[in-house]
Amino acid sequence: MDQLKMPSMDSVARFKAALNSDQGALGPFMITSDPAYVEAAGYAGYDFVLLDMEHGPGTFENLQNLIRAANVAGVCPVVRVPRGMDIWIDRALDVGAGALLVPQIDTVEQVRAVVSAAKFGPVGTRGTNRFVRSACYGAMPGSEYFAKAQETMVIIQAEGKKAVENLDEILDVPGVDVLFIGPYDLSSSLGHVGEVNHPDVIACIQGIIEKANAKGVKLGCFADTVEGAKKWRDMGIKFVSYTCDTYLFYQAAKADVDAFANK
Asked: What's the CATH number where 31 sits?
């Protein structure tokens, strides 16, 4: 048998390379819970798929099948876990997440807790089990698995005014690969609900970019459109989550319906 590898780690390396490129990394949120959509997204050439366990209807039993589909297509599976519980971080990594996106982060204490939950000792406090999917169900030697698993990525989602106020301290926490800006929640916290292009929101994001760049921390942001994705990239954001699978399908279907009806 060829040497075993952790199922998602090759795609993590490619994802990191995309983050370090001039173009940056692009990928959609996935909420359908259908592995076929995940696999198709990989074949389309996205750098990652963002499997949404916060707002999507999926279960952790289904999540492992979505990650398998990502592995088949060679695309990095990034899992957004539900907020507030370390066990979700453990479970997402156990079934093969290549990266985690943890929402609703406001304080440096929360960031430290996330990093600790995502890393094995001595770096963190993640529970050690080498019989899970990410360790090839025990077929991979434990020492090799526990060392390699430390390379999975941590992305924290700073979504509100409180996070911005604590940004200097948050950016100093080691172990964070990307700081993700949630523009919709940010707009709400600034008193402009849903107005992600409001001057106050844009100015706040520009301030976040300046502080992150000064400390060498990569940034991510959500975009509704390709034009919006390019705008964030031009502002220096390298991790761009672009709309979601259901909306991409709706847009394509609506365009076909309109074209068919056009006499």
From this structure: 3.20.20.60
Q: Is residue 1 a part of any domain in this protein? A: no
Closest CA to 30 of 3, 6, 8, 57: 57
Query: Which tokens go with 180?
Result: 């993700």
Return mean pLDDT, the chain. 93
**Structural domain boundaries enclosing 212:** 9-261
Task: State the catalytic residue, choosing from 5, 55, 215, 254.
Answer: 55
Stated pTM of the model: 0.94
Residue type, 178: V
Lowest-confidence pick of 17-26, 94-103, 147-156, 182-191: 182-191
Give per-residue pLDDT as tens, 203-225. Answer: 999 999 999 999 999 999 999 99
- Give me the half-sphere count of Cα atoms (radius 13 Å) on the Cβ side of residue 137: 1
* Rounded Cα–Cα distance for residues 25 and 30 (Å): 16
Residues 218, 243, 46: CA angle, nearest 5 degrees: 65
Q: Check if 192 is active-site.
A: no
One-letter-per-residue 3-state SS of 142-191: HHHHHHHHHHCEEEEEECCHHHHHCHHHHHCCCCCCEEEECHHHHHHHCC
Q: Both tokens of residue 48? A: 């990652």
Give per-residue pLDDT as tens, 129-158: 999 999 999 999 999 999 999 999 999 998
Handedness of CA 91, 107, 185, 20 (dihedral sign): negative
Measure the CA–CA gap between 168 and 166, rounded to whole angstroms.
Answer: 6
Query: How many structural domains are present in the chain?
Result: 1
